[in-house]
Each structure stands twice: as C-alpha cells, then as structure tokens.
Amino acid sequence: MSHAPRLAKLEDLNELVALENQCFDSDRISSRSFRYFLKKGQAQIWVCGAPINAYALLLFHRGTSLARIYSIAVSPDARGRGLAKALLEQLESAAVEHGTLFIRLEVKANNHAAIKLYEQLGYKPIRHLAHYYEDGFDGIRMEKPLMAHASRQAAKEIPFYGQTTDFTCGPAALMMAMKRLNPSQALHQIEELNLWREATTIFMTTGHGGTSPAGLALAAHRRGIAAEIWVSHEEPAFLDSVRNPDKRQIIESIDADFQQQCQRNGIPTQLGHFSLSDLGDAMARGRQILLIISTYRFNRKKEPHWVWIVSIDEQFVYINDPNIDPNDHREALDSVYLPVPRAQFEQAMKYGQKRFRAALLLSAQTK
Ligand SMILES: CC(C)(COP(=O)(O)OP(=O)(O)OC[C@H]1O[C@@H](n2cnc3c(N)ncnc32)[C@H](O)[C@@H]1OP(=O)(O)O)[C@@H](O)C(=O)NCCC(=O)NCCS
After folding, report:
1. pLDDT digits (tens, 9 = 90+) for 193-221
2. Phi, psi angle pair for 175, to nearest 5°
3. Which CATH superfamily is domain 6-145 in?
4. Which mutation among 74, 90, 92, 143 tests ligand 1's pocket best, with the greatest number of atoms within 8 A of CB?
5. I need a surface site. Which of 46, 55, 123, 265 has the fewest CB within 10 A?
6. Three-class SS state of 48
7. Whose CA is nearest to atom 31 of ligand 1?
8. pLDDT tens string 7-29
9. Which residues of the chain have pLDDT under 70?
10. Domain boundaries in the chain?
11. Which CATH class name applies to 169-363?
C-alpha cells in the first residue's frame, strides 16, 4: 500500500469528518472547521488512502516562522503501518518550504502512542498544559526546530498571560514582563483590570481606550519596577484616531496628567526615532521591553497592539503576544515565544501613517 500523502480537497470533507469521529471522543474538529481549514491558505491538510484512512493538519502562523500540527489521526484498522510517520514527514517538508523555523503541537499527557511517535521524530516537550483538554486532561506542548538555530533560549518557564478583554493588551503584556522581573507578580484578571484602570486614556477609535506608554510606566513604577519611555511623537498616542472633540479633549488631559506624574516620579521619556537594534541593545542591558506593534502583518487588522519582547537574536524577534484569538485558532501557548523574522518585525513596529513608535523599558531596580 502506498503511503504517499496528498493534499486534501473540499470534496474530502465528509470522509475527513467520518475519520475524525472514528478517532477522537472529545475535542473533535467540526465539519465547519474542516471546511474553513480546507479553504484557508494558512492551513494544509494532508491525507492518505482511498477512502481516506489518515490525515494530518498543519497550521501556519501568519507573520511568524512558526507552524503547528493541529491534528493527526489514523483509522484504527490502518495503524502501525507507518502512516502517521509518513504524514508528519510530509508536514515537516511542507513547513520547511514555507520558511518555518519551529513546529509545535499539543498532545494529551496520557496519549502514549502519539507521544512516542512525536519523540521518535525529534519533538521535545516544552511545556506542561494543566487541564488543557475539554475532558479536563492535561496536555503537553512539544516542539521541533526545523532548521539549525544556535542561540535559542528555551521556551520553557516564560511567563504568559492572555488578555481577557479587547482593550487590555497593555496590562497583559506588562504583567508578563513584570513577572519576569519579579516572580511574585500576580497573573490574574483583577490585576489586569486594575492596571488598565490606572493606565487607560479612556477613548480610542471606538469602544474603550487602550493603555498609553506613560500610563503603563506609572503603573509599573507603583509596583516597584523602574520604567523608561521611548516614543517617536510628542502628541498623545492615537489621538488622530478619535474625531469627536470632547473625546479628544479627554485624551489630551489624561495624557498631560500622565506626563506630569511621570516627571514628578522621575520616569524618563526619550523622544524620537528608535530602531530594532536600539531595542536589542536595551535588552542586552537587562531591560524588559513592551512595544506597540501594528497587528496588520499577523491578522490583517490594522490595530495598535502591545506585546512583550522575550528575546532578540540575529534572525528573529521572539514575542509573547497577549492576544489569543480563537478565530485564528491560536491558543494560549501558541502566543508564547513567537519567532518573527527581523524584517517582518521592523515593518510591524510602527503604527499608522505617522509611523508612531512606542516602547516601555522596564528593569527591576527603581532608581
Ligand atoms: C497516534 C497515531 C496517529 C499513530 O498512527 P500510526 O499510523 O499507527 O503510527 P505509525 O505506524 O506511523 O508509527 C510511528 C511510530 O509511532 C509510535 N507508535 C505508534 N503507535 C504506537 C503505539 N500504539 N504504542 C507505542 N508507540 C506507538 C512508534 O514509535 C512508531 O514507530 P515504530 O513503528 O518504529 O515503533 C494513531 O494511533 C492515532 O490516530 N491515534 C488516535 C488519534 C490520536 O491520538 N492522534 C494524536 C493526537 S495528538
């Protein structure tokens, strides 16, 4: 029997759903989701057999060098013949062609057959995921680097907190960076919301406002973390996204008050252009960095978004992205230690026509 996998087509939908139902009791991929994956360019489904008796689903993570094995299954009567191995090898070569640096996946902690399979192919556990599955079972995240890569820091033990509202990326990113500096930092929703209330400019384009660099710097300072602000423009961030004059006036007064408080508390602001290599230098001096990026390259939405930079090397910027968008099939830890090629990141680190840039540099010792 030939093991040669082929790419699935929309006509394969019913057979894929039947196989899924045969192989999994919970966390099944629905017919609707399969349809979405089959049509969407960011995913590939490879299948074997006629009728289909094995499939594997690979998701690419837009704008990053990460891919994820979202699912793999072989029908019970076709197991033990090397189909899963053939599919995984196929996914890996598709990922390499796509420029992928790491493949990640999650597996149930008690799925010994699958864990053995992944280990045999060189996947290593990088994180334990408590109660990750619908039925309460723990999961294990595994990873395989696809290209030789020298200075990689282990993705283990990097704090992660996912924002629980649309407007709290800043607080969530700040909590992760503060946790790095101070292991007793709380990572829960009340802390996230308190930080937002301290740091928000109240309004932005529509809905609630996000958090400004000065507001976040003050919130960090109150928690014993030294903060320094780098901004490209003197005016309040995103003021021109708000047309209503009353709202603009509120944003301006809050900004003026934040600036005064920063001065009183000795929080320095450096005004002007800064580059990715400036951020790399600051990291080398032990600073934790929060940065506003435009999300366009990652989700095609042009939103300003705070992320925490975990590490920078010659090729990649690694970020923890507090946003977990279930529509993008990105789950919590897929947002951890995301490798973004430097050139992509340089494009993402400025926002809007004015190319607004803002970073917050944090360190443990308050001066
Ligand atoms: C896990 C699964 C995909 C393996 O498929 P398969 O086609 O039988 O696997 P292969 O024949 O390609 O086996 C490759 C390697 O996997 C490991 N493996 C596969 N089945 C195994 C089992 N029952 N026990 C222990 N190791 C096993 C072995 O290391 C094997 O290599 P070997 O034959 O040299 O010992 C299949 O059992 C399955 O579909 N299970 C249900 C769905 C599932 O759990 N999917 C994974 C979700 S993360």
Report:
1. 999 999 999 988 777 889 999 999 999 99
2. -60, -40
3. Gcn5-related N-acetyltransferase (GNAT) (3.40.630.30)
4. 74
5. 265
6. strand
7. 117
8. 999 999 999 999 999 999 888 99
9. 1-3, 41, 147-156, 300, 325-334, 366-367
10. 6-145, 169-363
11. alpha beta
